[in-house]
Specification:
This protein folds into two domains: 4-194 and 385-410, Rossmann fold; 197-382, Glycogen Phosphorylase B (Rossmann fold). The protein is 44% helix and 16% strand. It has 16 helices and 14 strands. The protein has helices at 4-7, 12-19, 43-54, 93-108, 119-131, 150-158, 171-181, 206-212, 234-247, 266-276, 293-297, 313-320, 333-337, 351-363, 365-382, 385-410; strands at 8-9, 29-35, 59-65, 82-84, 113-117, 136-141, 165-168, 188-190, 221-225, 252-256, 283-287, 301-304, 325-328, 343-346. The longest helix is centred in the C-terminal third of the chain and has 26 residues, at 385-410. The chain is elongated, with a radius of gyration of 23 Å.
């Protein structure tokens, strides 16, 4: 396998040489994935990787991103070219140059489908793709718009007609996209995230892993994975820990997530809450982990109390690690969890209900084991990459077939 640096095409000389090469064979449908950034190992990045790795051989894939961390380990797993086209603003001279460059790439490489992730790729990239006249345009919607600015809300509604199809990561996101953006429901389809169970396999024992994470003194371990931000409900998790630890004084809540993305003062607020609740040793922030599978295997329960979600990859990973889960009833959580079977759902802000559910699982190991087994079975049945990608392939095939029929009728 080529190294990440070998596959990232950023050399302008290479770009000029590319223009004089013969076009690729049309025997494969070329899908270009356009994503705002590849700088971390988030849900969209993992969804993109799973898709690229799972598509059948009759599709040729490439990836273009506007911002890239060349040292990101995830890049080494991509089996296709990853191209950087730097873009900071969508309305300046550099944006015009990048638009021309992207359009040339689409035409020269005979791109059949442009599949976009996030606002700049959807809106700026979508316009460039449509002006290139060749590809179909498919947009992936992954959240409930909690980070959209007013200009994005206006643009998404104004440009709704340029998308040939929109893929929502959950039914809740689908409903939001139809209502907020005025999309035709017939053009919006739900295709959830997927998780690779092979990547969740860990050889070390639970005892060895707890020693690695300095958890040997913990009576129970409750894990949570996500950026330390207000929208992720980390403060609600701390309040939940305060109640759980009254009943289980040696229980430890372990949070894996980037501290540097936290809002100003939020970490200090969380630390103050820990002190006020006398749980300084019971709640630990590990920072960002490149691989969360060892932490999940070392845990007894997974707890995610987000205020807003699209469809959580972290929740699927916990379920795939055979963990019973407690999560908020937002976004696609209910679609993944199946309340009462794989875990419990609670309302946002309701830390008392969350604490009660966590305690019930800690009190009843048989219930926790049963729910964990059902969670793993649910992932195997519904959320494997091959299953999810099969639905995506049907979308590609149908749209390409309709386009070919349209071209033939015009001819």
């Amino acid at each position: 396998m080529a190294s990440a640096s070998q596959r990232i095409e950023t050399n302008p000389v290479l770009e000029r040489e590319l223009e004089h090469l013969a076009p690729h064979s049309t025997s494969q449908a070329h899908v270009l994935f356009l994503i705002d950034e590849l700088c971390g190992k988030g849900g969209a990045e993992l969804a993109l990787l799973n898709t690229v790795c799972s598509l059948p051989q009759r599709f040729r894939c490439s990836v273009v991103t506007f911002r890239l961390n060349p040292n990101l380990p995830l890049l080494a797993e991509f089996p296709c070219p990853v191209k950087l086209m730097p873009l900071r603003r969508t309305f300046d001279w550099n944006a015009m140059m990048m638009a021309a460059r992207l359009s040339r790439y689409i035409r020269h490489e005979r791109v059949d489908v442009v599949h976009t992730f996030f606002a700049s790729a959807d809106l700026w990239g979508g316009i460039v793709a449509k002006l290139s006249r060749r590809p179909l345009l498919i947009s992936s919607r992954r959240d409930m718009g909690f980070e959209r600015a007013r200009k994005h809300r206006i643009a998404y509604r104004a440009l709704r007609g340029m998308f040939d199809h929109v893929l929502a990561v959950s039914d809740e996101v689908r409903r939001y996209a139809i209502s907020e953006d005025g999309l035709d429901p017939a053009r919006v389809q739900t295709i959830p995230n997927a998780v690779s169970l092979e990547k969740l396999e860990v050889r070390e024992s639970v005892a060895e892993l707890r020693q690695r994470f300095n958890l040997t003194e913990a009576s129970h371990v409750i894990a949570s994975v996500g950026n330390i931000r207000h929208v992720k409900g980390t403060d609600v998790l701390v309040r939940t820990a305060g109640l759980v630890c009254r009943q289980f004084p040696k229980a430890v809540f372990v949070v894996a997530g980037a501290l540097e993305t936290a809002e100003a003062g939020y970490i200090h607020e969380l630390e103050r809450m820990k002190r006020d609740l006398h749980i300084v040793r019971n709640v630990r922030f590990l920072g960002k982990l490149q691989d969360v599978a060892p932490l999940l295997k070392a845990s007894d329960v997974y707890c995610m109390l987000s205020r807003n979600e699209g469809f959580s990859n972290a929740l699927l990973e916990a379920m795939g690690s055979r963990l019973p889960c407690v999560a908020t009833r937002v976004g696609g959580n209910a679609e993944a969890l199946m309340e009462g079977r794989c875990g419990f759902l609670v309302d946002t802000e309701d830390y008392k209900a969350a604490a009660s559910c966590v305690c019930e699982l800690l009190e009843s190991p048989s219930l926790a084991t049963s729910m964990g087994n059902l969670a793993l079975q649910s992932v195997r049945t519904h959320f494997r990459p091959d299953i999810v990608t099969a639905d995506l392939v049907k979308v590609y095939d149908r749209l390409l077939r309709v386009r070919r029929q349209s071209e033939l009728s015009v001819a």
